[in-house]
Amino acid sequence: MRRIRPDIAKGIGRYIGTMLVVAAVGVAEAPAQVRAQATQLAIRNSSIAPVMPSDAKGKAVFRSARAARGPKILISTESKWLWYVDARGDTLVSAPVAIGIGETFEYNGKRYVFETPRGKRTVRAKQKSPVWTVPVWHYYEKAHQRGLEAVHLKPDEPYLLEDGTWIEIRENQVGRVNKFGNWWPFSQDYEIIFDGKIFIPPMNTIQRRVTDALGPYKLDTGDGYLIHGTHEYNEDSIGTAASHGCVRMRNSDLTVLYQLVKTGTPVYIF
């Protein structure tokens, strides 16, 4: 078995008439430690401001973001950068992000587009220590990359392996039965690969979930698109087009954002 390895245009000056600085009153409701972290983060990146996109769709979203009042998250796919602006118009978070690679993947007649969709979204939910339920395209992509056959496992349908053992699902666990009839579950966070095949666990099984792929927090913007942290394997991808559609942040930056943002906050991606 193999471990899963989930996977700037700069402007100086004013944004929508508001200087890119942190006003202490802007984070007065946050804990002192968060205020301090937000201050350091915004000051460190205070020279980087949103820039009008070059295309019509991006411009339309940018204008909507500029006109919106209240707290908001802005994400530039051109600059690969995120800003959180509070109700007073102060930029409290300014940080680089990774966005979708912008590629299309086809497998067995199915087509998947790995890009970060532009438009207005909303923070629907927040979660600490999120667990990633692995989408089917991940297994298809790995099968394609490694020359494997993708096999969907099903309850009550044991799968015989070449060595005489077999894979069997019991309750919410996928495991292997050895030649003596003993069954044990596969470890979580690992892909199941045998005999040139990658096995896809059912959605409700523990083996379909990965505990360390999304970083310490996630902000759910709907339709499977998240703002989340970054696995240690992918830390150097921040600031590039490297994800399958989600917006990924450095874990330290996300920690500040998570504590400031409330559910219902609009997200403008341009």
Molecular structure report:
The chain contains four helices and 24 strands. The protein is elongated, with a radius of gyration of 22 Å. The protein is 17% helix and 34% strand. Strands 4, 5, 6, 9, 10, 20, 21, 22, 23 and 24 form a ten-stranded mixed sheet that branches. Strands 1-17-18-12 form a four-stranded mixed sheet, with helices on one face. It has two domains: 2-131 and 215-269, L,D-transpeptidase catalytic domain-like (Beta Barrel), CATH 2.40.440.10; 133-209, no CATH class. With 270 residues, the chain is α+β, with helices and mostly antiparallel strands.
Would you summarize the structure shown here?
With 270 residues, the protein is of the alpha+beta class. It has helices at 32-44, 56-67, 136-146, 251-260; strands at residues 2-3, 14-15, 18-19, 72-76, 81-85, 91-100, 103-107, 110-114, 119-122, 125-128, 132-133, 149-152, 159-160, 166-170, 173-177, 183-185, 190-194, 197-200, 209-210, 217-220, 226-228, 241-243, 247-249, 266-269. It is elongated.
Core attributes:
single chain, 270 residues, alpha+beta, L,D-transpeptidase catalytic domain-like, 2 domains, ten-stranded mixed beta sheet, four-stranded mixed beta sheet, 4 helices, 24 strands, elongated
